Amino acid sequence: MGLKARSLAHAKWLCKHHIVFASKCRKRIIFADLRASTGEILRDLCRYKGVEILEGHLMPDHVHLLVGIPPKISVSSFMGYLKGKTSLMIFDKHANLTI
Fold it and tell me: Which of 56, 48, 28 is nearest to 89 (CA)?
């Protein structure tokens, strides 16, 4: 389940990060169809960047992720990418959503 060390050209790594991020003003909006599409979007975006999701939970007003981020990607740049693209893709799929 991700306990094996991975390797790059000159390094072996096993970096796990627990990430929590919330919806705007912690509004409880992650329900039903939005929950399913948000999970799918997060999986796709992590796959694009080569980040492994070890565990994840979608709560009504926030998201918990345990991810394995390669050392070539900084945590802050990955979070900026993930939060920005997730919000854009959610609003593309759910145009009637108001926050």
Answer: 48
pLDDT of residue 11: 79
- Written as one string, the DSSP assignment of the chain is ---SPEE-SS-EE--EEEEEEE-GGG-----HHHHHHHHHHHHHHHHHHT-EEEEEEE-SSEEEEEEE--TTS-HHHHHHHHHHHHHHHHHHH-TT---
Burial 75-90, CB ≥16 within 10 A → b, else e: eeebbebbeebbeebb
Across the range 39-54, mean pLDDT stands at 94
- Answer whether 43's CB lies under 8 Å from 35's CB: no
> What CA–CA distance (Å, rounded) separates 70 from 10?
13
> Could you give phi then psi for residue 74, rounded to 5 degrees?
-75, 150
Whole-model pTM: value is 0.82
